[in-house]
Amino acid sequence: MSAFKDVLASSKHIIAVAGAGLSAASGIPTFRGAGGMWRKYDAFSIATPTAFRDNPSRVWQFYHYRRETARTAQPNDAHRALAEFSFQHIRDRVAPESTFTLITQNVDGLSRKALHSAAQNYDLPVPSDQPDPILLEMHGRLFEVICTANACGHREPNFNSPICPALAGTEELVKAGAEEPNIPLANLPRCTKCGALARPGVVWFEEVPYFMEEINTLVEQADLCLVVGTSSTVQPAASIASDVQDNGGMVAVFNIERTERDDEADFLFLGPCEKTLPAALGMSASERLSI
Q1: Within this chain, do residues 155 and 250 fall inside the same structural domain, yes or no?
Q2: 48 marked as binding residue
Q3: pLDDT tops 60 at residue 130
Q4: Is the pTM of this model over 0.85?
Q5: Domains identified in the chain, total number
Q6: Do the annotations mark residue 147 as ligand-binding?
Q7: Is the Cβ–Cβ distance between 62 and 41 less than 8 Å?
């Protein structure tokens, strides 16, 4: 930990790439770890464009379940540590004159919620996404919907619960692994602008993540990459850390359990990231009081 803090203090361009493990302590199920969602559900039957085309009822029920799970979830100490680290004057205490961007694969919105809460707590404006982004949600947002009509393509936030009447209660069936009802197409979420079928505002397998140009630029510049709560399995996020190392930077991994790429890391902190990450970034509860 001491050696890591020395590296942190001398780093000038820091990025973090976060996965589902970041939100585990907030009650959001992970995907590939013990008890992960992809051990229970077939990813390619519910998280691809083909799956949505073939069975939008099933896909929407799965994402309705995820929306209802995320709706009441609150950021944990790992979210809060990254959010506070995003503010320059706070970050300067441990990494003077550095830049920072969180690249998250999560779609639950908890990192953005933590950022807004931190701004409110310290009576600060939320950092602007321009010119230097501080949060890139590369896999989209669970609480957005996108029109499937090519001529429309309307995108908008949607926090309705349920998102449409026909989905009410189906979250319990998904949670139990029960056979789902077949909801007619006309009763699934519709675009508020043109009335066409809407889809969840997330990036599925076989689709290109958002912000790849910005991410590639950040990776080229980064001299320190924090890998938080991810098995580093899904591309292109999986290669971010190794690309930083190839460019001469260092990598610190914060995971609950070992993963295949641990041996490549310069620092490895095993344990709940809501405990290890705040300690590493100088954003633990006792240190937070002094901010």
Answers
A1: no
A2: no
A3: no
A4: yes
A5: 2
A6: yes
A7: yes
Instruction: For 202-227, give one letter per residue: b (16+ CB within 10 A) or e.
Output: bbbeeeebeeeebbeebbebbbbbbb
37 annotated as belonging to a binding site for a ligand: yes
The residues carrying an active-site annotation are 139
Which structural domain, as residue segments, surrounds residue 270?
A: 1-27+75-139+210-290
Q: Is 187 annotated as a binding residue?
A: no
Rounded-to-integer distance, Cα 199 and Cα 166, Å: 15
Whether the CB-CB separation of 163 and 237 falls below 8 Å is answered with no
Q: Per residue in 239-255, pLDDT tens? A: 999 999 999 999 999 99
Q: Which position has the token pair 């993540």?
A: 209
| 268/257 Cα distance (integer angstroms) | 10
pLDDT confidence of 41, banded at 50, 70, 90?
Answer: low
Residue 18 structure tokens: 């976060």
Query: For residue range 52-110, what is the model confidence (pLDDT) as tens digits?
Result: 999 999 999 999 999 999 999 999 999 999 999 999 999 999 999 999 999 999 999 99
Amino acid in the structure at residue 286:
S
